[in-house]
Design brief:
11 helices, Rossmann fold, alpha/beta, 2 domains, 4-stranded antiparallel sheet, Alpha-Beta Plaits, 6-stranded mixed sheet
Length: about 325
């Protein structure tokens, strides 16, 4: 993959996006930058503004609401000069949008024409990408014959036809089984090692942790945290968590759980989470519970997300 001459592939400075005659702010003063060759994750609960932010970056949200400013992609303003950005980018939308009237190879050939890739060059590129996404045997298959995971992999292959410098993925593995998700993660890591810059939104915390060099967490249109996933967890959250799966079970140990030793998070459902840097203390609590009523583990990015936004990333809102 080509290296970029730009210090920042994407630069966002104090960006606002307002709808409904200025009464609703989807994005409120957001700033961040994406350097070449990294995977940058935009995270947030539903309604946080991340989808609006993504649309502004690749230039499709300029017909509604207030004019956007302060965004630069490859040195271009996506609101005024989106064409060169799209020529240098590949887009994987949230929804599958393959042409079901065409087979696998034909879907890719149509997009090759958009980038003026023709003849043997197009055929070579299609073969290369089908092999990369492990779809070579499906070349002549109709789209309806493909599984959901195969369709997602084909859409990623389509987004790579122009050998983009920036790959934009909007929830690329939602609804896929774990095996396919891990396959896609492996391909994205390989692309990143080859120098490609990746912008990702996801509802899977393990996905963000696995492949993102940096994450930007939004809530209600604003930034609430930014940085390397592991470093954010180390800085902002206790090391361990004891998940207790019923209120009855938690009542067994609640009299011994104090603010001095632990932090308790009750999300309003049956699960109570007890956070602490003292693993042995949590293990002693767990010994008073019945197996299957609890889970003692290390804290992760989703625990951080829950702490700073008040909701889980994949919560339906």
């Amino acid at each position: 993959m080509r290296s970029s001459e730009y210090e920042n592939i994407i630069k966002v400075e104090n960006v606002y996006k307002t709808y409904k005659n200025g009464t609703a702010k989807a994005v409120a003063g957001v700033s961040f930058s994406v350097t070449p060759g990294v995977c940058f994750g935009l995270l947030g609960p539903n309604g946080a503004g991340k989808s609006t932010m993504m649309k502004m970056i690749y230039g499709v949200s300029y017909r509604d609401g207030t004019p956007d400013s302060g965004i630069s992609v490859f040195g271009h303003d996506p609101g005024r000069n989106a064409l060169p950005i799209r020529f240098l980018s590949g887009i994987v939308p949230q929804e599958n949008n393959l042409d079901e009237e065409l087979n696998v190879e034909q879907n890719l050939k149509v997009f090759c024409r958009f980038y003026n890739i023709t003849g043997s060059q197009a055929q070579d590129r299609i073969s290369e990408l089908l092999s990369f996404m492990e779809l070579s045997e499906k070349q002549s298959f109709g789209i309806k014959q493909l599984s959901g995971g195969m369709k997602r992999r084909l859409i990623i292959a389509r987004a790579l036809l122009n050998n983009p410098r920036l790959l934009v993925l909007d929830e690329p593995t939602t609804g896929l089984d774990p095996q396919v998700r891990h396959l896609i993660w492996d391909k994205l890591r390989r692309l990143k090692r080859q120098g490609m810059t990746i912008l990702l939104t996801t509802h899977y915390m393990d996905e963000a942790f696995q492949i993102c060099d940096s994450v930007f967490i939004m809530n209600k249109g604003k930034s609430v945290a930014e940085g390397n996933p592991q470093q954010l967890v180390n800085k902002h959250i206790e090391s361990y968590v004891l998940e207790v799966y019923s209120k009855e079970s938690f009542s067994v140990i609640s009299k011994n759980v104090t603010e001095k030793c632990c932090r308790v998070d009750d999300d309003g459902a049956d699960v109570t989470r007890i956070y602490s840097d003292d693993y042995e203390r949590l293990r002693e609590f767990s010994k008073q519970l019945t197996g299957g009523d609890f889970y003692l583990r290390q804290s992760n990015l989703e625990d951080l997300f829950l702490k700073i936004t008040g909701s889980r990333l994949n919560a339906q809102q």
